[in-house]
Amino acid sequence: MAFAKLQEANRPRHVIEGILSSIRDGSLKPGECLPSEAKLAELTGVGRTSVREALAALRLMGVVETRVGDGTYVRAEGAISAELTNGIADAISKSEEALQLQEARAAFECGIVRLVAERWSAATAREFDKLLAKMDKAAKSEGYEDYIRLHRDFHLLLAQATENAIIERTERSFLEFMDHEGWRDMERQFLLPNRAENMKASADEHREIIEALKAGEGAHAVDLAHEHYRRALEGETHE
After folding, report:
1. Is 64 helix (H, G, I), strand (E, B) or coil?
2. Is 94 helix (H, G, I), strand (E, B) or coil?
3. Which superfamily does CATH assign the domain made up of 96-233 to?
4. Topology adopted by domain 11-86
5. Binned average pLDDT, 10 residues per bin, the chain of 239 residues
């Protein structure tokens, strides 16, 4: 494939251009699986964070798709037009912003889960049971906008369960950012696509965290939260 060691500053662009070049010259064909993140990092001489940003941008551009537990594939219909190539910088900017927000949320909210475990109460459990029932209902009925709103409510309720006003305010700032149009577009495209199976899997993951908290298994709840964000950061869906 047409990869070379990096000589320029824009690392995600370097990875993207290598992948696009490989698709154009036929060494990467429609439907073919890309090398792993680790292999792409080795081939291009960049870090895995830059590779993840590049793959996120390519997903936004519609060139590749990530299949949960399988890998990242060149889309069968992924023609490389001049218009698409010219959108690289914008896609990189959006994907980098998305990745940074997800990293920040992962660091912050895994800490929230740890604190909630220490302050868990029966009243908190009842609030989450009601909210999770609504999330399940929205997922089953394919009510995407309702599910997104309830998903935001879940994370706010988690912050409120810390009984810490600063944490709650910080969480609200994350949620405000996530309601920006650009983020909502990215969320719909590759973080939590508008499909019943994605919403159902997302609801199940959130329920597992709460069940661990209800069982007094705080460390396990933190591990589940960490895994939840790992999947999002590595391009799997079910935000």
Report:
1. strand
2. helix
3. GntR ligand-binding domain-like (1.20.120.530)
4. Arc Repressor Mutant, subunit A (1.10.10)
5. 54 86 87 91 87 81 79 74 58 66 86 96 97 96 93 96 96 87 71 83 95 97 90 61
